[in-house]
Protein backbone atom coordinates (compact mmCIF):
# COMPACT_ATOMS: atom_id res chain seq x y z
CA UNK A 1 0.00 0.00 0.00
CA UNK A 2 1.23 3.47 -0.82
CA UNK A 3 2.23 5.75 2.02
CA UNK A 4 -0.74 7.80 3.21
CA UNK A 5 -0.70 11.45 2.30
CA UNK A 6 -1.72 14.33 4.49
CA UNK A 7 -5.13 14.78 2.92
CA UNK A 8 -8.29 13.76 4.74
CA UNK A 9 -11.86 12.60 4.31
CA UNK A 10 -13.70 13.44 7.51
CA UNK A 11 -16.95 11.55 8.09
CA UNK A 12 -19.47 13.05 10.51
CA UNK A 13 -21.68 10.17 11.65
CA UNK A 14 -24.74 10.49 13.85
CA UNK A 15 -28.46 11.01 14.07
CA UNK A 16 -30.28 14.04 12.76
CA UNK A 17 -29.78 17.16 14.89
CA UNK A 18 -26.68 15.77 16.61
CA UNK A 19 -24.49 18.68 15.43
CA UNK A 20 -22.75 17.26 12.36
CA UNK A 21 -23.40 20.16 9.98
CA UNK A 22 -22.75 22.81 12.63
CA UNK A 23 -19.43 21.12 13.44
CA UNK A 24 -18.48 21.02 9.74
CA UNK A 25 -19.29 24.72 9.33
CA UNK A 26 -17.18 25.65 12.37
CA UNK A 27 -14.26 23.58 11.10
CA UNK A 28 -14.38 25.15 7.62
CA UNK A 29 -14.33 28.63 9.17
CA UNK A 30 -10.94 27.98 10.77
CA UNK A 31 -9.46 25.66 8.12
CA UNK A 32 -9.85 27.08 4.63
CA UNK A 33 -8.93 24.16 2.38
CA UNK A 34 -11.78 21.87 3.43
CA UNK A 35 -14.79 21.26 1.19
CA UNK A 36 -17.99 20.48 3.07
CA UNK A 37 -20.41 18.08 1.41
CA UNK A 38 -23.86 18.02 3.03
CA UNK A 39 -26.42 15.47 1.87
CA UNK A 40 -29.30 17.72 3.00
CA UNK A 41 -28.05 20.46 0.67
CA UNK A 42 -27.78 17.97 -2.19
CA UNK A 43 -31.30 16.67 -1.45
CA UNK A 44 -32.75 20.18 -1.34
CA UNK A 45 -31.12 21.02 -4.67
CA UNK A 46 -32.36 17.93 -6.50
CA UNK A 47 -35.84 18.14 -4.92
CA UNK A 48 -36.19 21.70 -6.24
CA UNK A 49 -34.51 21.27 -9.64
CA UNK A 50 -35.23 17.64 -10.59
CA UNK A 51 -38.45 16.59 -8.83
CA UNK A 52 -39.50 14.14 -11.57
CA UNK A 53 -36.24 12.22 -11.17
CA UNK A 54 -36.24 12.40 -7.38
CA UNK A 55 -39.81 11.16 -7.01
CA UNK A 56 -39.61 8.61 -9.82
CA UNK A 57 -40.26 4.94 -9.12
CA UNK A 58 -36.66 4.22 -10.12
CA UNK A 59 -35.25 6.54 -7.44
CA UNK A 60 -37.54 5.12 -4.75
CA UNK A 61 -36.14 1.59 -5.07
CA UNK A 62 -33.68 0.68 -2.29
CA UNK A 63 -30.24 1.20 -3.74
CA UNK A 64 -26.64 0.45 -2.78
CA UNK A 65 -23.48 2.49 -3.19
CA UNK A 66 -22.80 0.54 -6.43
CA UNK A 67 -26.12 1.59 -7.94
CA UNK A 68 -27.10 4.63 -5.88
CA UNK A 69 -30.16 6.81 -5.73
CA UNK A 70 -29.82 10.28 -7.23
CA UNK A 71 -28.73 12.03 -4.01
CA UNK A 72 -26.00 9.50 -3.26
CA UNK A 73 -24.88 9.47 -6.90
CA UNK A 74 -24.29 13.22 -6.77
CA UNK A 75 -22.49 12.86 -3.44
CA UNK A 76 -20.19 10.20 -4.90
CA UNK A 77 -19.29 12.31 -7.93
CA UNK A 78 -18.67 15.47 -5.86
CA UNK A 79 -16.45 13.50 -3.47
CA UNK A 80 -14.41 11.91 -6.27
CA UNK A 81 -13.99 15.29 -7.98
CA UNK A 82 -12.71 16.87 -4.73
CA UNK A 83 -10.28 14.00 -4.16
CA UNK A 84 -8.93 14.27 -7.70
CA UNK A 85 -8.52 18.02 -7.02
CA UNK A 86 -6.44 17.12 -3.93
CA UNK A 87 -8.85 18.80 -1.47
CA UNK A 88 -9.70 17.83 2.09
CA UNK A 89 -13.36 16.86 2.45
CA UNK A 90 -15.72 16.82 5.38
CA UNK A 91 -18.86 14.78 4.78
CA UNK A 92 -21.16 16.67 7.11
CA UNK A 93 -23.98 14.16 6.99
CA UNK A 94 -22.39 10.78 6.58
CA UNK A 95 -25.01 8.09 6.40
CA UNK A 96 -25.81 6.09 9.51
CA UNK A 97 -25.69 2.90 7.43
CA UNK A 98 -22.48 1.20 6.35
CA UNK A 99 -22.73 1.82 2.58
CA UNK A 100 -21.76 5.48 2.63
CA UNK A 101 -18.95 4.90 5.09
CA UNK A 102 -17.69 1.94 3.05
CA UNK A 103 -17.69 4.08 -0.10
CA UNK A 104 -15.69 6.78 1.69
CA UNK A 105 -13.16 4.20 2.89
CA UNK A 106 -12.74 2.86 -0.64
CA UNK A 107 -12.17 6.34 -2.03
CA UNK A 108 -9.72 7.23 0.76
CA UNK A 109 -7.66 4.18 -0.11
CA UNK A 110 -7.88 4.77 -3.87
CA UNK A 111 -6.82 8.43 -3.65
CA UNK A 112 -4.28 7.99 -0.83
CA UNK A 113 -6.30 9.93 1.76
CA UNK A 114 -6.50 9.40 5.48
CA UNK A 115 -9.91 8.76 6.96
CA UNK A 116 -11.27 10.48 10.05
CA UNK A 117 -14.53 9.38 11.70
CA UNK A 118 -16.38 11.63 14.11
CA UNK A 119 -19.23 9.83 15.86
CA UNK A 120 -21.79 12.27 17.28
CA UNK A 121 -23.11 10.09 20.09
CA UNK A 122 -25.34 12.53 21.97
CA UNK A 123 -28.03 11.53 24.46
CA UNK A 124 -31.39 10.82 22.82
CA UNK A 125 -33.13 13.36 25.07
CA UNK A 126 -30.87 16.15 23.79
CA UNK A 127 -31.48 15.18 20.16
CA UNK A 128 -35.26 15.15 20.76
CA UNK A 129 -35.07 18.57 22.41
CA UNK A 130 -33.12 19.95 19.44
CA UNK A 131 -35.63 18.48 16.99
CA UNK A 132 -38.59 19.99 18.87
CA UNK A 133 -36.93 23.43 18.83
CA UNK A 134 -35.54 23.29 15.30
CA UNK A 135 -36.04 25.90 12.64
CA UNK A 136 -34.15 23.74 10.13
CA UNK A 137 -35.74 23.67 6.69
CA UNK A 138 -37.54 20.53 5.50
CA UNK A 139 -36.91 21.03 1.76
CA UNK A 140 -34.53 18.06 1.79
CA UNK A 141 -37.36 15.63 2.57
CA UNK A 142 -38.66 13.07 0.09
CA UNK A 143 -41.09 11.12 2.22
CA UNK A 144 -41.38 12.88 5.59
CA UNK A 145 -43.09 16.04 6.70
CA UNK A 146 -41.36 16.72 10.03
CA UNK A 147 -37.91 16.24 11.50
CA UNK A 148 -39.42 14.22 14.32
CA UNK A 149 -40.42 11.57 11.73
CA UNK A 150 -36.78 11.15 10.66
CA UNK A 151 -35.43 9.79 13.94
CA UNK A 152 -37.45 6.51 14.01
CA UNK A 153 -36.60 5.98 10.32
CA UNK A 154 -32.92 6.38 11.13
CA UNK A 155 -33.27 3.86 13.96
CA UNK A 156 -34.35 1.27 11.37
CA UNK A 157 -31.13 1.43 9.34
CA UNK A 158 -28.51 2.92 11.66
CA UNK A 159 -25.47 0.71 12.14
CA UNK A 160 -23.73 2.26 15.10
CA UNK A 161 -21.20 2.76 16.46
CA UNK A 162 -19.14 3.21 13.31
CA UNK A 163 -16.03 1.09 12.90
CA UNK A 164 -12.81 2.39 14.39
CA UNK A 165 -10.73 0.28 12.00
CA UNK A 166 -8.47 2.14 9.52
CA UNK A 167 -9.59 5.59 10.69
CA UNK A 168 -8.69 8.26 13.20
CA UNK A 169 -11.66 8.09 15.50
CA UNK A 170 -13.36 10.74 17.63
CA UNK A 171 -16.53 10.36 19.65
CA UNK A 172 -18.56 13.37 20.74
CA UNK A 173 -20.84 12.78 23.73
CA UNK A 174 -20.87 16.28 25.19
CA UNK A 175 -19.73 19.86 24.66
CA UNK A 176 -16.22 19.21 26.00
CA UNK A 177 -15.71 16.37 23.48
CA UNK A 178 -17.00 18.74 20.77
CA UNK A 179 -14.48 21.46 21.67
CA UNK A 180 -11.59 18.99 22.04
CA UNK A 181 -12.32 17.34 18.69
CA UNK A 182 -12.62 20.70 16.92
CA UNK A 183 -9.27 21.81 18.40
CA UNK A 184 -7.48 18.57 17.46
CA UNK A 185 -8.81 18.59 13.90
CA UNK A 186 -7.96 22.26 13.44
CA UNK A 187 -4.34 21.54 14.42
CA UNK A 188 -4.20 18.46 12.21
CA UNK A 189 -5.56 20.21 9.11
CA UNK A 190 -3.61 23.47 9.34
Could you explain how this protein is built, in words?
- This protein has helices spanning 20-30, 39-49, 51-54, 57-60, 70-84, 98-110, 124-132, 150-157, 175-189, and strands spanning 8-14, 34-37, 88-94, 114-120, 168-172.
- Helices cover 47% and strands 16% of the residues.
- Helix 2 (39-49) crosses helix 5 and helix 5 (70-84) runs parallel beside helix 6 (98-110).
- The protein is α/β, with parallel strands linked by helices and 190 residues long.
- 29% of the residues are buried.
- The chain starts with 7 loop residues before the first strand and ends with a helix.
Descriptive labels:
190 residues, alpha/beta, 5-stranded parallel β-sheet
What spatial order of strands do you see in the largest sheet?
2-3-1-4-5
* Number of helices, where a helix is a run of at least 4 consecutive DSSP H or I residues: 9
Backbone shape: globular
SSE pattern, N- to C-terminal: EHEHHHHEHEHHEH
First and last CA, distance: 26 Å
Helix proportion of residues, in percent? 40-55%
Largest sheet: 5 strands, parallel
User: Count the strands?
Assistant: 5
The parts where pLDDT drops under 50 for at least 5 residues are: none
Strand share of the residues? 15-25%
Secondary-structure content class: alpha/beta
Mean pLDDT: 91
Q: Write down the Rg.
A: 16 Å
Amino acid sequence: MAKLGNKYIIMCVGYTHSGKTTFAKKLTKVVKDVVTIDNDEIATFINEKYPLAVFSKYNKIKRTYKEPNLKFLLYQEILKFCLRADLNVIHASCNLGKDSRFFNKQQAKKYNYQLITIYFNLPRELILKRIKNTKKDTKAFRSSNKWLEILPKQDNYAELPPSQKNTRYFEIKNMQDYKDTLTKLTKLLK
